[in-house]
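[job 4471] stage=fold_predict status=RUNNING
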Amino acid sequence: MFQPRLYHLYLLLIFCIVSQTTLAQNLHFSQYFNAPLLVNPANTGFNPDFDFRVGGSQRKQWANVINNPYKTSSIWADAQLLTNRLENGWIGIGATLFNDAAGSAGLQSNKAYLSLAYHQMVGIHSLVSVGFSGGYVTKSVDATKLIFDNQWNGKFFDIAQNPNEPFAATRVNYADIGLGVNYAWFDDDVYFNAGLSYLHINKPNESFYAPNPTINQQVPGRITFFANSQIKLNDLWIINPNLYYSRSAGSGEMVIGINANRNIDGYGYHQLILGLYLRAKDALIPMLGYQLYNYKCTLNYDVTTSALGGAAKNRWGAYELSIVKSGVFGAEKNIKCPSVKF
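[job 4471] inference complete, writing structure tokens
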């Protein structure tokens, strides 16, 4: 059992370590499938049964441990264009706003992206998509609220002592570029989709410190792969297995799991959504949701399974809420590559 002072020092050390890694933090939603444009720009307009989507996600991490928990928010929208003019394809256009706030030092990341994709039917059961995204990123921090190792005087951190850190700025701005490809195969009761993206292609400089030729201050490229499937078991159940893997700068993240949609009213207008996911070596993620017509709302909680969760009495977790609305522009919809539905 931790003594009170040692426990708080432990929390401080963990927070300092995580604060350093957060300087290059990327997408971190457990419901990554509800932030599709951030995962892969080829997902833009990839919603074959509808003309448009609008969605948002809110994540709060470690709220039971620190006074200023990590908060991640995203809103996005996309739409299909030229579906009635292109016989075997369509164009997708979309936009995303993303905010990540980390800890009491006011570390903020704000991102705005526009994305464009082209979707082309290949035969009668396949679809290939390519996408591009371009955005602008602003990151800022309040350096006066940061504590550094050379401010430790042997008994406590003396914030009046000069940290001797070579800060060049407390705000950085840069452009960000990504590319992606998707493939989909579909039949009456089975639907499969997989995609590969490469983000931060231009590897922009991102550092609050002065340029240093001995230190790489670029945002590393990120490769992301996802695969999902919809399988209609009967008139009551559709299951949706999912896999997500992302790798950057030698570190990887893998999330694997399944959703199950239960047809409540017999027509598919009301659906109960049950899900269970696992982030490898980190967290178990139960999920619960409800779909009403073209509105879908899902909520999950990350139960930390790593040594971090055990050391802090399992208080290291995250809440996440996502809402997605889909719709059509007119009375009729020209559907290509239809998904599985009740």
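[job 4471] summary: The helical segments are 4-22, 36-39, 307-311.
[job 4471] exit 0
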